[in-house]
Request: fold
Amino acid sequence: MTGDGMFALAALLLHALGFLVVALVVPLRRLGRPAAYFSILCAVGSLASALIAWQRHIGGTASRLVWAWLPADGQTLTSVGVLADAESTIMLTLVALVACLVQVYSLGYLSDEPPAALGRYYAYQSLFAFSMMGLVLAPNFVQLFICWELVGLCSYLLIGFYYQKPEAARAAVKAFWITKAGDVGLLIGIVLLWHQSGTFDLLEMQGLVESGALPLAGLSLITFCIYLGAVGKSAQFPLHVWLPDAMEGPTPVSALIHAATMVTAGVYLLFRTEWLFALTPDVLALVAWVGAGTALLAAILACAQDDIKRVLAYSTVSQLGYMMTAIGAGFATAGFFHLLTHGVFKALLFLGAGAIIHAVHSNNLPDMGGLARRMPQTAIIFLIGTLSLAGIPLFGGFLSKEEILGAVWAGGMTGPFVILLVVAFLTAFYMFRVVFLAFFATPAAHDTHPHDPPMAMALPLWILAVLSFGIGLYFTVAGPALPFGPAEAAAHGPAWLMPVAVGSAVGGILLAWLTYQRRIIDAGALAAAFGPLRTAAQKRFWIDDVFEAAYGVVLLGFSRAIGWFDRYLIDGVLNVVSAWTLTSGDDLRTMQTGRVQDYVYGVAVGLMILLLWVQLA
Amino acid sequence: MLLTLSWLVPLVGALLLLLVGNADGRRDGMIRWLALGVSLIAFAVTLGVWAAFDPASAEFQFVERHSWIPQFGIDYFVGIDGISLLLVVLTGFLTPIALLSSWGSIERKVKEFSIFILALEAAMVGVFISLDLFLFYVFWDAMLIPMYFLIGIWGYDRRVYAAIKFMLYTMAGSVLMLVAILGMAYLHSAATGSYTFDLLKLYSLDIAPQTQMWFFLAFTLAFAIKVPLFPFHTWLPDAHVQAPTAGSVILAGVLLKMGTYGLLRFSFPLFPEAAAYFAPWLALLAVIGIIYGALVAMVQPDMKKLVAYSSVSHLGFVVLGICAMNTQGMQGAVYQMLAHGVSTGGLFLMVGMLSDRRHTRLIAEFGGLKTVMPQFTAAFLIMTLASIGLPGLNGFVGEFLIMLGAFRWAPAFAVAAGLGVILSAVYMLWMFQRVFYGPVTHEANETLTDLQPREWAGVLPLCAMALVMGVFPTIFLKPMEASVDALVLRMQATQTVQVEIPVDRRPDDERRLTTVTERVARR
Reply:
């Protein structure tokens, strides 16, 4: 048992090794490519360890390795270590896989970067993978929070990788602030929970919950606070605004952090603590409604984007909303399953988009077109990802989407269910809009000659494509039982569910085909039909503006007022007091005239007063 | 003897430097090395104390007592427990770094400068090890003199104003404290017939609650000014901005902690009932300070001023932890003192380096420095992240423990403090973005040199310490554990008698708070 935990631990520590060596051995880092090779070597080792760990825990055994970290009253307040079980090791495998593939891919994608920048990039990458694995394997809330913050830091550093671009710097700091706001909620939730239960440990707490020993009073507030952390990290409304801007980072980073792993940490957190959230149905309902609302909002926004990465970013927000809705409906496993498949095909889509951007040197859809002929491999790969995301049968995304729809229906949440169906339609529409515009439309006039990516980039793409298709095929052929967690037979909805879901996806594809391929429907007219909605979508529903105003006007304005208050009132009062001391000193000095007569008068008057006082007393 | 050495070494070093003839400044180099050598020896002595320290004991260790003015019961009485031990080591750690920081920037009166720094170190160590109130007061005020001159002579353009302001503020508080100290000796004499300034004897003195209030206020005012607690903080930005880099490092790193140390060592344990009564009010000021300091920091155009106001915010956390009066709160408070010393000391050090290069500290004058100074930027980033309490670095442990402690005591304060955590990320990272990211906007910045080996010598230990404190907190929590527990027990025992709540290690916080506030309302 303990031995099995060692594999998970090794997966984690190999990335730590990669980070430490690349970060501390300065000459290696400055060489660039050798640092990258070392980091990739660690990542490959880590992937192997993770696969073994997954294989060892697939049967449902759990192993736990912990070391004391903070002491309290002679005991341990909290520890660090790994908790490896079926769920955490499969997530670990996903992280290890995508991290490894992205590192390989980056070799090609960032080949033009100066060596020092490349070394720095790989140091951040390794630190991220380490932190993310620490989060996944966390045996307690404190380690989870620590790693939660560290992945946020890596996200900040990697979004700001092109730090000379002011937009990148701004996006980096925006992401950090907004997620930090959620993180403080999470921290407060964790501390409140500790106060209530006396422990940070996940297993101990689960035991308390299952034995009914955890007091329920105020638990809704606690789960709400924890959920706040997930809202920030997993880009739920209204804190989703940072994720589209995060696309300023290099595309492989977007694939790893802002699609497959870090942004799903919120979903993972809720999945890991579903036994806790199950005690607070009110918060779960909130999770479901916010999730569905986020899914719809982001899907609408994705339709109005011309930047291929932003389409994918909003699509990620939308899919995260999908997962959250399933969790809110009470079927966390369905959400987790979608997390896994989404991790694979969304990484694929981002890396595919990266291949296009690498070839065309532009993010804008109008600059692309006709790429299917020039980049046939990329086109196939991208199509596989798109079909998977759209939820077409036989592809990975189909199964998990179906699970979610079934779960939401079974959870009795008709409202969110209808919203999710609409989102399924929109998802197919905006993704095929991208496909038709980028690969099939008349080529834009460009002097570059786009071609398929080099080996380092193509290989990870093919692996992910095979997996996206393979997962779907495997489950369709070999049977629907999920290889982890409790069987979710109840989550399978009524018989009409699959045709309706697939129908809405096909409808979306059809509409995109008619509009952007056949041009039977005029794109301008289609947009005009949604007049106000389109305007709102182009303005991002003014949510970003609200944040901007909250920061620029309210917070800074208030701070300026306080700053003025500090300088002129608090300090001013003290300056007045001291000035008054000085002037009164001056005034008092005039009493000392130096003339003997004045002093004699003074003594005489004083004596009289004294005598009078003695008499009266 | 080892403990006495820890303050005697720098003092003797200062006296020796006095003897070096340096009228024409020819021996500046030698004096610099001498001073650095002395401070390193002093640091080694403090490490020696740590090595010989028994972490299992809550008693004062390395106790030395010699009669000084027997008529009034004044002794030379020193000793340390786990709390003061770490502060002494911090002082020993930061002084060589402060001396290194002045290597290039202090060019006139090097001898006098070095003497003042060493004298300052002696006085600071003295403050932390004194167990006799009179001796404590002597060190407390002695520390003012070198600091006054450091700001007044080697400071920036408004140095005299800042130096006098610093002096007057501190004096105003410490005069009241002196009266209270004399009053304590008088109380002891009234109760037992003999004067004493012995802290341990005074701990066991039974003082009427009403009297405690006045004494508590007198002591606490002196310490609150030093911390500085809102609204007594306005000397701090002036002093910091005007002080030379070494002065700022020591001011932020050690001097401010003398205020919070005073609360822990004197105000709270000497007058526990008054402390229980005033704790919510003190915590209120602390929380106001956390948010207020952060908000004011947000709009500062001057980097040094920004860091100075961030200190107001961070020290508010420390006071909040102390007020919680439970294990986590106290542990967190001491840890945060150390962490703040390292990270804010580091920030001042590095802002000073920029200021030496460009002769300005205005954020708007910089931009894109990451391109020209990558190493400097990396080190500055570590210090920035440490300051905003990122896990894995030193600031997190203290803030986390304080949050735990505060939640056990009064959740509302803890939530407000949580807001301060967000704000600190906002103002620190905003500054970082404006200074280091983006394209190079000013021509003068294009030729800036990166960190030099001598500068690394100061920055590297701080970065390493920030990491070690963040990853292996037990190293620092273990030695203080017994002392903190003893202190907490002492505070809680008295409260139980007075407020009549269960002695449970996790008391019903709300009830305690309402009891205290009820009593406040009744008056």
Chain B touches chain A through 52 residues (CB under 8 Å). Residues 497-523 of chain B have pLDDT under 50 and may be disordered. Residues 159-192 of chain B form the longest helix (34 residues).
